[in-house]
Amino acid sequence: MGSQGEIFVKALSRLLGWIYMLCWSASFYPQPILNWRRRSTQGLAIDFPTVNVLGFVCYAIYTSTFLYSPLIREQYAARHPISPEPTVRFNDLAFAAHAVVLSSLTYSQFWPQIWGFKVSKFQRVSKPVSGIFWGSIAAVVLVMLLVTSQTGEDWHDPLTWAWIDVIYAISYVKLVVTIVKYIPQAWVNYKRKSTVGWSIAQILLDFTGGILSILQLVLDSAYQDDWSGITGNPVKLGLGNVSIFFDLIFILQHYVLYPNDDVVVKADADVSTPLLG
Fold first, then answer.
1. Which of 82, 63, 94, 65 is nearest to 235 (CA)?
2. Each residue of 22-77: pLDDT tens digit?
3. Global pTM?
4. What are the residues facing 40 on neighbouring strands?
5. What are phi and psi of 262, to 5 degrees?
6. Stretch 170-197: mean pLDDT, rounded?
7. Cα separation of 116 and 138, whole Å?
8. Exposed/middle/buried for 67, CB within 10 Å: 0-12, 13-18, 19+?
9. Contacts for 52 with CB less than 8 Å, ≥ 6 apart
């Protein structure tokens, strides 16, 4: 590819990255604003913001180490010699840091002592989600123990258990969280036969960001002529696809299955019962 083409592809990749980051970042505002306007968190499954905080803390760790840790970048290059440069970008880190703040804000709205919002006594974290929360942390600790238990020549070998595997484990926590966090909300919408209290604006922004995220990843890998850039960044690929899948479900629920937001939803107990437990 000529120099002009190379400049164009890199500029397009950066543009896609910043647009999807802005879409995803903007998607965090409609829900807390909706809660504020209603002075209530009813209609929002508490599982969603609970695991969201964990997920984005993990994503922030993942992106920051791939960008700024010489050890992690060195181990990545050893495992991907054809394209030694990670496909993580600064906009990924900017998005992750912003997401930690906003997801924490949304979670805090379930504390009446802080905001004074109406929170149902049935809005509590379900046992399966609680188990996934603590199980994910335990899994990362286990990988850390595997890495630190190595001695001798294997200690610096990036092709065995290495610190990059700890970072990958942390990134998989984010992927698991993304898969899990939407399920309770889809279930709550189904039980109530309504999406009242669940902002569709955040879903539309999230859907747009997911599409552009995957486009950027494909563009970067195609430019490097090495599709291991995708397999080397599985969390970004997984995040985009999983988000798109669930966004389509919520769009279907809001516009097709339960389109009338003016209907009176069921009793408080029915509205807020968690998925399980």
1. 63
2. 898 899 999 999 999 999 998 999 999 999 999 999 999 999 999 999 989 888 88
3. 0.78
4. 118
5. -90, -5
6. 90
7. 34
8. middle
9. 99, 103, 106, 107, 177, 181
